[in-house]
């Protein structure tokens, strides 16, 4: 049991370091190279990377320092604050992922008919507004953490020696207060099922557009060589970026589907490695996705490394 705990701790630290490096570098790459002319897509990536970074840091504080350090002791409000920050980062990351998938689908929809006309989210003001809505919605959905019942029934201890339970919802098979149960299933519905549905639908629509584009034969027109090269180069960059978005969406679907199954089928009362399993499932997307987006958008190129 001790060897397993040490191995899981080492793996946890490794995944966390990978995620921290990837998200920090994605933020720096966008800020240093594109901040003066940042576009909506880069702004959404910044929001996603910032949310990922916050989630990884707070989850490690909560899981390692609080749950595995016997000398650590927190009062109820400190524990709830850590929970709030963890859930806030998780929900914000999910919402920005949904926003990116919708943005890319809208960019590709009727692209041939729309030509160079912008969509609503192309406006940087609109991008800031919807980003603010995502942050506000994440705050609203995280706030019930402060209202959950932390008191177990007589003779039943629902928290560990540090006062912080491994399960955010504190909703096991033996005891689950009505407030905690309502928040748990509301969270699963609004923050897991609905985003998974939206991401799945938009991914299918993007794939359909890409397949139709491959089947379409473009007529040859008399344009200058430089203009033709610019259009081809822009099209290749957009296609590579779209493939990166699809890869990230696939990772998101796998990750949060596993999280959904885990929350609905596994009880923290009967599974001793609940905190570790939840960490690996919820952190895999936040740690790997910045590399997918960065490589797909040429932000993690050798040229960018030389600039750093």
Record the SSE blueprint.
Layout: H1 2-34, H2 40-66, H3 76-108, H4 111-114, H5 124-142, H6 178-215, H7 225-265, H8 274-296, H9 302-307
Helix pairs in contact: 1-2, 1-8, 2-3, 2-5, 2-8, 3-5, 3-6, 3-7, 6-7, 7-8
Give a verbal description of the structure.
This protein has helices at residues 2-34, 40-66, 76-108, 111-114, 124-142, 178-215, 225-265, 274-296, 302-307. Helix 1 (2-34) runs antiparallel to helix 2 (40-66), helix 3 runs parallel beside helix 6 (178-215) and helix 6 (178-215) packs antiparallel against helix 7 (225-265). With 308 residues, it is mostly helical. Helix content is 73%, strand content 0%.
Main sheet specs: none
- The value of Rg in angstroms is 22 Å
* Count of runs of 4 or more consecutive helical residues: 9
- Strand/helix succession: HHHHHHHHH
Q: What is the mean pLDDT? A: 78
Shape: globular
Overall structural class, as computed from helix and strand content, comes to: mainly alpha
Low-confidence stretches: 153-162
Oligomer state equals single chain
CA-CA gap between termini: 43 Å
Total number of strands: 0
The share of residues in helices is over 70%
The percent range for strand residues is under 5%
Question: Main attributes?
Answer:
about 75% helix; mainly alpha; about 300 residues; globular
Could you give a quick summary of the protein structure above?
By secondary structure, this protein is mainly α. The chain has nine helices and no strands. Residues 153-162 have low confidence and may be disordered.
């Amino acid at each position: 049991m001790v060897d397993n705990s040490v191995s899981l701790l080492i793996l946890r630290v490794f995944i966390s370091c990978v995620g921290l490096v990837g998200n920090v570098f994605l933020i720096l790459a966008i800020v240093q190279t594109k901040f003066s002319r940042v576009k909506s897509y880069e702004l959404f990536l910044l929001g996603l990377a910032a949310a990922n970074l916050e989630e990884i840091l707070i989850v490690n504080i909560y899981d390692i320092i609080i749950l595995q350090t016997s000398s650590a002791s927190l009062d109820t409000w400190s524990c709830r604050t850590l929970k709030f920050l963890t859930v806030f980062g998780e929900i914000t990351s999910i919402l920005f992922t949904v926003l990116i998938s919708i943005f890319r689908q809208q960019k590709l929809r009727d692209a041939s008919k729309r030509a160079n006309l912008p969509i609503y989210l192309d406006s940087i003001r609109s991008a800031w507004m919807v980003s603010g809505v995502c942050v506000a919605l994440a705050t609203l959905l995280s706030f019930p953490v402060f209202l959950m019942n932390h008191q177990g029934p007589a003779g039943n201890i629902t928290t560990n020696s540090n006062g912080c339970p491994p399960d955010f919802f504190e909703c096991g098979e033996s005891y689950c207060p009505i407030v905690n149960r309502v928040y748990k299933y509301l969270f699963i519905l609004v923050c897991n099922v609905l985003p998974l549905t939206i991401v799945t639908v938009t991914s299918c629509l993007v794939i359909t557009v890409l397949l139709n584009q491959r089947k379409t034969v473009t007529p040859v027109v008399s344009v200058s060589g430089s203009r033709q090269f610019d259009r081809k180069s822009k099209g290749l960059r957009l296609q590579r970026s779209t493939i990166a978005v699809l890869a990230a969406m696939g990772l998101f679907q796998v990750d949060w589907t596993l999280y959904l199954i885990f929350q609905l089928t596994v009880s923290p009362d009967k599974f001793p490695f609940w905190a570790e399993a939840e960490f690996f499932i919820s952190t895999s997307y936040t740690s790997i996705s910045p590399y997918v987006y960065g490589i797909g958008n040429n932000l993690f190129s050798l040229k960018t490394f030389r600039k750093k």
